[in-house]
Design the sequence.
């Protein structure tokens, strides 16, 4: 059962009385007449063969208010792209698949690379960036929602609650972040958020003092959630990371561009479960280890752009402070698990904390060693300034792929 408490400096929209889904969807249908809506699905081809995405597509077939669904397809050859077309063919909404590895979109990507305007690495950030570009080019939406394709507990109510705050013309929110309890199969999940991000933010406050940006990030109940929505106008000036810092980077961009009263978070699910990453303690370039490093670097970069001076001494102190704060959180979550009849492995929790402490120092060292690093993908405003017809060319490439293979479905 949700509460009505407002914590932090952004608005929290709760799920107080389990409002019937048909009521919400009816209102969204009304809103859609003046504010058309698009859903973006960034997907790996492998997720088409996983347990979650078939259920997501089945739920989306019942959604009455979407004007468009944009699917970003990564790591797919020609036959896999054709299979993806079959897979999504039953969606009743207008939908398009961006074959990111196809020759047409690859050619555009290579041209942008020569200008220094393309994403520097493959991943979700790159996929999302091109989907946003296509969505701008299509001119079919004024509100956009985005969620992952590995949600095992998906219900279309998640989408309805996620997009409602930016679709409702009576609300002034430009951006909405979804949140939920990461509890499934009798366990508390979400280790990177629980044991790394929140303790890191609290430790940074102890070391650096009160900073509005840290208070802002600490206001989000689940800052790493891959579910968010925004008004289409937001997209033009967004600069997002291409690595695991995507979610933190996006929150940072919203902080840079908008007042906090235009930003909210909403409770979108009682239970949320998706595929889990390995801790990968032995490999800093994989799993939760790489994720924690990328996230820490994203936070440090943003602090630096706000004028905070960071040094080796800062990061040594931060590592020690984080470690103590995080261990206190382990005890907190242990007690929370016990009172709710859940299991929580203290040994594994503390192993994760030890790894994250090391990775915070690694991220700090990387930040100091690479002061000129520019990890953000350029905004679409900048790209369009350099290549004025790029959005139309992306749209034309997607339509050409659609038409070329239409008869092969």
Sequence:
């Amino acid at each position: 059962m949700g509460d009505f408490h407002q914590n932090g400096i952004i608005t929290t929209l709760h799920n107080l009385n389990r409002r019937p889904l048909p009521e919400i969807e009816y209102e969204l249908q009304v809103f859609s007449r003046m504010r058309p809506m698009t859903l973006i699905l960034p997907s790996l081809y492998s997720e088409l063969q996983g347990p979650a995405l078939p259920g997501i597509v089945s739920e989306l077939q019942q959604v009455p208010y979407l004007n468009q669904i944009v699917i970003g397809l990564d790591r797919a050859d020609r036959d896999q792209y054709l299979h993806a077309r079959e897979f999504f063919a039953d969606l009743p909404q207008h939908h398009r698949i961006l074959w990111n590895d196809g020759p047409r979109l690859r050619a555009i990507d290579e041209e942008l690379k020569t200008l220094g305007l393309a994403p520097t690495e493959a991943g979700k950030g790159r996929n999302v960036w091109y989907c946003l570009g296509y969505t701008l080019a299509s001119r079919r939406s004024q509100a956009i929602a985005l969620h992952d394709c590995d949600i095992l507990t998906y219900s279309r109510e998640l989408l309805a609650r996620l997009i409602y705050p930016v679709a409702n013309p009576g609300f002034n929110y430009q951006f909405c972040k979804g949140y939920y309890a990461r509890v499934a199969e009798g366990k508390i999940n979400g280790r990177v958020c629980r044991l790394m991000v929140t303790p890191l933010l609290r430790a940074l406050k102890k070391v650096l003092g009160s900073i509005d940006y840290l208070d802002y990030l600490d206001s989000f109940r689940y800052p790493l959630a891959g579910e968010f929505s925004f008004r289409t106008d937001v997209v033009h000036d967004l600069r997002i990371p291409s690595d695991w810092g995507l979610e933190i980077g996006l929150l940072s961009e919203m902080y840079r561009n908008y007042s906090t009263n235009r930003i909210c978070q909403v409770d979108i699910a009682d239970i949320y479960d998706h595929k889990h990453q390995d801790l990968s303690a032995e490999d800093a370039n994989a799993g939760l280890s790489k994720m924690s490093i990328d996230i820490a670097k994203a936070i440090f970069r943003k602090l630096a752009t706000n004028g905070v001076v960071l040094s080796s001494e800062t990061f040594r102190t931060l590592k020690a402070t984080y470690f103590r704060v995080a261990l206190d959180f382990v005890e907190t979550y242990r007690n929370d698990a016990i009172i709710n009849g859940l299991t929580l492995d203290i040994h594994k929790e503390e192993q994760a904390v030890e790894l994250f402490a090391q990775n915070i120092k690694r991220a700090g060292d990387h930040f100091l060693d690479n002061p000129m690093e520019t990890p953000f993908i350029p905004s679409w405003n900048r790209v369009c300034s350099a290549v004025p017809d790029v959005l139309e060319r992306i749209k034309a490439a997607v339509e050409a792929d659609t038409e070329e293979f239409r008869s092969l479905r």
In short: The chain has 14 helices and twelve strands. Residues 108 and 394 are 7 Å apart (CA to CA). The first strand starts at residue 11 and ends at 13. The two ends are 46 Å apart (CA to CA).
